[in-house]
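User: I'm putting together a teaching handout on how multi-component assemblies are represented. Below are the sequence lines for each component of a complex, exactly as they appear in our records. Could you produce the 3D structure of the whole assembly as structure tokens, so the students can see both representations side by side? Please keep the chain order the same as the input.
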Amino acid sequence: MFVRELTKPDGRNLRLYSRHPIPPDIEAPAAAVGMPPNPHLRWHPLRGEWVGYADYRQHRAFLPSAQHNPLAPTTDPAHPTELPAGPYDVAVFDNLSPAFSLFAERPEPDPIVDTCPARGVCEVVVFTQSPAATLGSLPLWHIELLFEVWADRCADLGSLPAVKYVMPFENRGVEVGVTLHHPHGQIYAYPVVPPVPARELEQQQRYFEERGRGLLVDLVDAEILDGRRIVHASGSAAAFVPVCARYAYEVWIAPRRPAESICDLTPDERAGLAVALKTVLLKFDALWGKPFPYVMVFHQAPTDGLEHPEAHFHIELYPPYRMPGRLKYLAGSELGAGFFTADSLPELKASELRAIEVRVE
Amino acid sequence: MFVRELTKPDGRNLRLYSRHPIPPDIEAPAAAVGMPPNPHLRWHPLRGEWVGYADYRQHRAFLPSAQHNPLAPTTDPAHPTELPAGPYDVAVFDNLSPAFSLFAERPEPDPIVDTCPARGVCEVVVFTQSPAATLGSLPLWHIELLFEVWADRCADLGSLPAVKYVMPFENRGVEVGVTLHHPHGQIYAYPVVPPVPARELEQQQRYFEERGRGLLVDLVDAEILDGRRIVHASGSAAAFVPVCARYAYEVWIAPRRPAESICDLTPDERAGLAVALKTVLLKFDALWGKPFPYVMVFHQAPTDGLEHPEAHFHIELYPPYRMPGRLKYLAGSELGAGFFTADSLPELKASELRAIEVRVE
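Assistant: Of course. Below is the structure of the complete assembly, with chains in the same order as your input.
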């Protein structure tokens, strides 16, 4: 993998990645300049968690037309986008309106709750130069490259003292609030271990202490043995609708070996995960013959300086549709109680996905 | 308050409530018969929480036309709705497609995770006979009556041995997935204390043990003293955008005294809460001159047979809009990490709401 590190005129980082050498004369274009980010956190005493405040994000770009796509390569220097033209496959740059910033200043103390600067990093990962592509439509070598890019960024961001947890994710589709259609994901480097990963790690730690084995490796093995909810399995990776799915078409993808983080994957495991991910995404789009929206998140070990033998890198996909044209809305029970009720059985949804044949190459 | 308890032909309960006596000859109509509910729970080992499965809910009623409104009083006996005609103000009945049922059977054991019958109750609370009304538009006496109805149902459902937590809630607007426009709420009587109230009670319990006072009563007093986020305050109740709001226009309403549950409220406190709730809802609708969607949930002490001096009944309102026409989508960070980032400051949103004058009577 070849990388070229550039700095935008406003100081933001830009990294270009390719399987081939990138010409040295490529330059970062001078794209739009955002409001200076100065986010802060406030403690939510009732939930026992931090909440971020970033009021300059209110007016960020919202579904611009194709000719104003900030994630396409710059073709007209008079109208620069976030990215240069040139031979590269993937680009990563600092979000113009980030929820976290390494330069956030200490906020005024609040008389009621604890506050602190929201020091962290928000990056945008542009999956490809092609605005009409999708993650699932990329060739396997390109998705493998993406796993290397994600690992590179997670290692880099995770080494920052301010950062306690790094989470790559993708929101796909207007149904989950996408504001730019060009295929891209994001990486949040959090100043704290956020509530959901913290809870998962707590459960995994207890299991590991009791049994000396990983919760997720046992779950993956059990799902493969059971077989009813498997969508794809190989020697190095598995994709399945988990027995405890909260969304109708929820899928988890994990390496068979409990790698702690995306940085610990072997080339074989990256290749296996690329096949699994592409398989699932193509099945999603083939299911109803149209682009299938989803939220995709990567869970892994925190970067808090501690050992995490209990952690097991995995991908969770939450598609919002429960049937054609019907969204699963999160409302009273889900948002107010944290209690999910599924309208379908994971076994049935997995068999729908399993039945779809797709070409993965 | 007068109550008439009826049983529908399919065995479901129906209760009619009014400030005036209800004629004894009123009968429950024979509405649609649903699939026999047999929901179950599965343990989610990674999150350490239960997930409900109720596959017969997939085909429940979805935005029927006005003449097929199942929550309007029956006018033509050949086309019965869920409710009779007659002089009553509020009606409560068992949901036709419930997420929980007292008659749920023990599911087949699963080889991977624990399962159990989803024994509980789901009720529908029809706020008024008028299909075009809204909760906020009801006169104060009617909202006070509703607080009595909610308390009656919470006491009744909470006394069931299967029930560990009772949560009244309202989803308002298609933006939060409403499937019937007639003004109504729901009550879920859960077989477990769900994750969010459990987490809040844990935080409140720790605070109470350390200081001998309630977390929320201290927070409410501090918000009133601070004043910047108060939307409405009286001697018995307060409404405010909390200092740690996760949604732009999030509002909490609480009695000033730390009543453990809605069942413990005095008539004065009910009256104060009715004024606070009506004030907030009218301000919401007046904000942009159109119906303002929200999810409203009631948090209180569990009904697990234990003492809960730490609990403090309160209402949380989560409106999904962050600005006119722009929803706050829950995506990667919120759903996958449990980490919320707000695009606005609570102080500013509270001042917008405070500036709106409404007539409460």
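A couple of points students might notice: Chain A has two domains: 2-192, 196-355. Chain A has a mean pLDDT of 95.
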